[in-house]
Amino acid sequence: MSDSALIISPMIAAIIAGVLALVADAAARPRVAVGVAIVGLAAGCVLAAVASQSVEGGSLAYGVFIGGGELSAVGVPIFALAALSLLGGMRYLSNRETGAAMAALVAFATAASSALAASADLILTAIALETIAICAYALVSAARTDRSAEAALKYLIQGAVSTGLLILGMALLFGLYGGSRSYPALGLSLPLGPAAPAGAAAALILSAFAFKLGAVPFHAWAPDVFETAPSPAAAFMAGAPKIAALFGLFVVFAQVFEASVENLAYQVAALAALSIVLGNFAGLRQRSYSRMLGYSGIAQVGYALAGLAVGLARGEGGVANMLRLTLVLIVMYAIAATAAFLIAQAVSEVRPDWDGSIAGMAGIGRQRPALGLALGVTMFSLTGIPLTAGFWGKLLVFGVLSVTSGWLWLALVAVVGSVISFGYYGSVLRAAFFDEPPLNGSVPHPDPPAEEPADAVAALPRLFLSEGTALFLAVVLLGIGIVPLFSGLDSILALFAG
After folding, report:
1. What is the residue-wise DSSP string for 358-379?
2. How far is CA 482 from its chain centroid?
3. How many CB atoms within 10 Å of residue 189?
4. Which terminus of the chain has a smaller tally of CB atoms within 10 A, N or C?
């Protein structure tokens, strides 16, 4: 297989998996559809790992894709988290009329996420972003409730505005700077042209990516979407697409705008600070578990954008230098967020009458120790507590912010925001471990037949698939958090080196 074919092979595997899932859906075999999608995404993960090791970093494929080394290594967590979100949601998806279609949508959105991360062309970037968005609209509406339909419609309308901003920014670049769509060519032509249109194009494209990431002030869709979407879909949307969007934003800024647009760092820093402040303070007021996670995601994106801001401030080469550090942060968040939403799915399977509230999780950690362990590790990692993966991601970015001249204020905002976040993550842990469980709705069968055990909890499966997948991700978070104590931070950074 040629290097070019190897670079695009992961997304091809995902597309084939999506098509086969649709065929299984037509044959009314939802479990087969989900299984095929999982296998295809797992194959994509393996192929991405092979490409990262076998292809030289920065290799161009078919004129529009760039991959190899670190550029292909980012595909590993994208495909792995997509496959795990489907695996954890297997029970839900297999018993839903829309389950097979949702599996296909996840596969197609993962292929688009892979294309976005590998894009070196404006048109490809636009197509990938819109494919992810269209799949996301459908995934939200797949819950088939009035609230999910309303959230999907709001998401669609706001997404249309974001698309307009993206196209306008691309038109400025294409029309005024040599008529090229290629990132490297634009990077060479922008310094030779007028500065004002380049700055406007950068701001427009930043706005479009900020919407996809859910950064303030383009965040309004996120809480509603994550609260109303099916938990497996939310687990996917909180993970793989966010990694791809952040990676794509770093690449386009490093190759196109870094050397030609001044004061871009301050625009990004403003988005970062606003996202951290709003996400954390709004999270304190939430009573819905999934809605709280939506605001948590806004704050976490703010931390990642802080890394981009300091990279831009460092001048030429600064964005590329910050990429790996920020990638550690966003990947660790994505792992924890995927686990957190799969925990929501597990709670709904243990307690079918659960209303989605944090209070409704009372006692779940004592009732299901494995689920409690996964929940505890996940919440600690999202907070950034030592011995979890989230701690190292924040340490890398916050540390660079604190030692970079002029950016101590943003480091303080990030640290204070992280401390505040324990207020809402801690409320989940308090409910799960210290509050008394509800009298009704605690188990799937509150009035079991006479032949079943009197204790209905004993009749529950020892481990739901969603629970087991979340526990696996929690072990990963714990393992990544502990390993650097013995081998140093280089062991984490090496994961993204390709």
Report:
1. SGGGTTHHHHSHHHHHHHHHHH
2. 23
3. 19
4. N
